[in-house]
Amino acid sequence: MLTSYHHKVIYSGTGRRKTSVARVNLIPGSGKLIINGLPGESYLQFSPNYLRISCSPLNLLGLSKEYDIYVKTQGGGLTGQADAIRLGLARALCNINSDNRVMLKSEGLLSRDARSKERKKYGLRKARKAPQYSKR
């Protein structure tokens, strides 16, 4: 989605993973990452893995210093949020230029990971773990 904010062009995309939702806005800039008002590094606890996952669509296209990323994310934990940011970012990059879509799709960055926690069933300890069987 394309909107204009104080004469700056904003590209947006929404990403989801597990129970996390991330609304990603891309603004032409210097490459900073802001998540829920905090610098991305501190929000993701300086984890190189989470930072790499979150910014992978930009790095793939070689645009890591071209856009500022502003993210509002909620729900889930850091793993789900990092993956949600990645999907939202990839979708926003598709709005910028449809040529980006081919490259992102071939790397699998545009597909939503549908895996989520399976519900617990009655009579079981977890979704599938049964209590210990006692013969007598």
UniProtKB/TrEMBL annotation:
GO terms for cellular component: chloroplast; cytosolic small ribosomal subunit. Residues 117-136 have a biased composition (Basic residues). Keywords: Chloroplast, Plastid, Ribonucleoprotein, Ribosomal protein. PROSITE patterns: RIBOSOMAL_S9. It is found in: Plastid, Chloroplast. InterPro entries: Ribosomal_Su5_D2-typ_SF, Ribosomal_uS9, Ribosomal_uS9_bac/plastid, Ribosomal_uS9_CS, Ribsml_uS5_D2-typ_fold_subgr. One of its GO terms (biological process) is translation. Pfam families: Ribosomal_S9. Residues 108-136 are annotated as: Disordered. GO terms for molecular function: RNA binding; structural constituent of ribosome. Belongs to the universal ribosomal protein uS9 family. This is Small ribosomal subunit protein uS9c. The lineage of its organism: Eukaryota, Rhodophyta, Florideophyceae, Rhodymeniophycidae, Ceramiales.
